[in-house]
Amino acid sequence: MWQLHQFPLCPFSRKVRIVMGEKNLAYELVRENPWDKRDELWQLNHAGRIPVLHDTTRGTTIADSRAICEFLEEMVDRAPMLSGNSATRAEIRRLVALFDENFFQDVTAPLLEEKLAKRLMLRQPPDSRALREAMKSAHGHLDYIDWLVDTRAWLGGSMLSLADMAAAAQISVADYLGGIDWAGHEQARTWYAVVKSRPSFRPLLTEKIEGIPPPAHYAMVDG
Amino acid sequence: MWQLHQFPLCPFSRKVRIVMGEKNLAYELVRENPWDKRDELWQLNHAGRIPVLHDTTRGTTIADSRAICEFLEEMVDRAPMLSGNSATRAEIRRLVALFDENFFQDVTAPLLEEKLAKRLMLRQPPDSRALREAMKSAHGHLDYIDWLVDTRAWLGGSMLSLADMAAAAQISVADYLGGIDWAGHEQARTWYAVVKSRPSFRPLLTEKIEGIPPPAHYAMVDG
Ligand SMILES: N[C@@H](CCC(=O)N[C@@H](CS)C(=O)NCC(=O)O)C(=O)O
Ligand SMILES: N[C@@H](CCC(=O)N[C@@H](CS)C(=O)NCC(=O)O)C(=O)O
Predict the structure, then answer these.
(1) Residues of chain A with pLDDT under 50
(2) Domain B86-206 belongs to what topology?
(3) What pLDDT score does B105 carry?
(4) Most buried one in A35, A64, A121, B4, CB count within 10 A?
């Protein structure tokens, strides 16, 4: 039995959930609040981070969302997310790194800090300058998605891939936290509406974090 | 012709150079100072980061060290660095992420900031508290390497792999900057002495950054 240790607004956990949904894999969710720093999580993953995929039957444990996605690609033929020749696969992996690292650092992480960590743990209001900076960076990243969508069928090339999943996972968390303004990003908006309407995405869109409601358009499939 | 855009003390560039050395691939080095933010680099890599591997003949460009290493694994059979079944490969990739992300964040990045960026760009002395913190974190990571070496032939399992290359690349930069104290880490020290003595490592150990000399033991193969 697969258990996924995750947090609903962790974009890396979301990426893995979407990929597992596309591949039609059954798994159980184990909620981890990153700020709890539970001993059990540190025992499963020396980095103390989520997501962690744990096979309770065989005892296998895989940490790091990219390691998990590569593993799922190798194990499950259904719904390939990293197909094509080596150059195409390299391009998909480049984009995954861009969204996992740069989009996360510039946009998702500061939004999580200001709107979630400060509210739930420190009972402090968000710093409006940090929020403005994050939203400005989001525009830069959405410009790049506009450009990708103008030149390709999907972000990574001619096929739906991990690049789309990585980008949509980050955007969905940023959108939940009110950090995405689609004005001027018609191509990115259209691409995201398509990804978001996939059945693999639906379970994410109905989840709520206590005390932090998403904006009205967040879960609307044409929103 | 392959060109690698890199900086001598960038641990991700080092990881790629070691892997290309192991695989016996010819390439040209193009030096990029990360702080220069050259337009040419941004044109090659939208993330503005090194390393970038550029095939000047075919025009292929690959950014992100993990994407580059996966590409080299797929293209070149010689000296496999990611072999074994999917669970073993996942374990190697987990460790690569641990060293690329956690070791880098906790140890290499603060050392680069305090000892290189501050000196070369701001002409400021390093913050001794930040240096102490980084060296304390290094001990924690070396403890974990001690434990891995106690239980396995190489960090990722029974074979030399990307996990060893990722760890050794981070350590070599931290060691250049005086951040590694081997006291109490006999297993890690022995493992590192073996990796460091490989021919793929040698070119890195003789390079110097102007104005920042490495400690005396840095390039000694039994040091
Ligand atoms: N590279 C990792 C990053 C995972 C990550 O940063 N997870 C966050 C939650 S979104 C976390 O667990 N943070 C707690 C910590 O770093 O201590 C992955 O792709 O899985
Ligand atoms: N995930 C990237 C990280 C690369 C990275 O952070 N490179 C640093 C130099 S060590 C850099 O180019 N920094 C400049 C910047 O982030 O603007 C990889 O593995 O290649």
Answers:
(1) none
(2) Glutathione S-transferase Yfyf (Class Pi); Chain A, domain 2 (1.20.1050)
(3) 98
(4) A64
Task: Please state, in angstroms and rounded to a whole number, the distance separating the CA atoms of residues B18 and B79.
Answer: 11
Supply B154's token pair.
């190489």
C-beta of residue B68 within 8 angstroms of C-beta of residue B51:
yes
**What are the extents of the domains in chain A?**
2-75, 86-206
Q: The domain B2-75: what is its CATH number?
A: 3.40.30.10
- Tens of pLDDT, residue by residue over A131-143, are 999 999 999 999 9
Closest CA relative to residue A16, chosen from A141, A162, A199, A160: A162
What ipTM was assigned to the predicted interfaces of this complex? 0.97
How do beta strands A2-6 and A28-31 pair? parallel
The pLDDT tens digits of the residues spanning B33-58 come to 988 888 999 999 999 999 999 999 99
Position B21 pLDDT exceeds 60: yes
Do residue A94 and residue B60 have CB atoms under 8 angstroms apart?
no
Distance from CA of B71 to the nearest CA of A (A): 6
Cα separation, A67 vs A93, whole angstroms: 12
How far, in Å, CA of A124 to CA of A135, rounded? Answer: 20
pLDDT for the residue numbered B42: 93
Give me the mean pLDDT over the B98-103 stretch: 98
- Grouping H, G, I as helix, E, B as strand and the rest as coil, residue A28 is strand
Nearest by CB to B98, from A47, A71, A74: name it.
A47
For the range A189-192, what are the long-range contacts, defined as Cβ-Cβ under 8 Å and sequence gap of 24 or more? A190/A149, A191/A145, A191/A149, A191/A154, A191/A155, A191/A164, A192/A168
Q: Is A105 on the interface with B (CB under 8 A)?
A: no
The tokens of A128 are what?
């409006």
Pairing state of beta strands B52-55 and A61-63?
unpaired
Token pair belonging to A50: 């989520």
Return the exposure string of B87-126: e unless at least 16 CB atoms fall within 10 Å of the residue's CB, then b. bbbbbbbbbbbbbbbbbbebbbbbbbebbbbbeeeeeeeb
Report the residue of A5, A43, A64 to disrupt the B interface, i.e. the one with the largest count of B CBs within 10 Å: A64
Contact B111, B137 (CB under 8 A): no
Q: Does B23 touch chain A (CB under 8 A)?
A: no
Q: Is the pTM of this model over 0.95?
A: yes
pLDDT at A45: 95
List Cα–Cα distances, B145 to A92, B55, B151, B191, in angstroms. 31, 35, 10, 9
Q: How far, in Å, CA of A46 to CA of A29, rounded?
A: 20
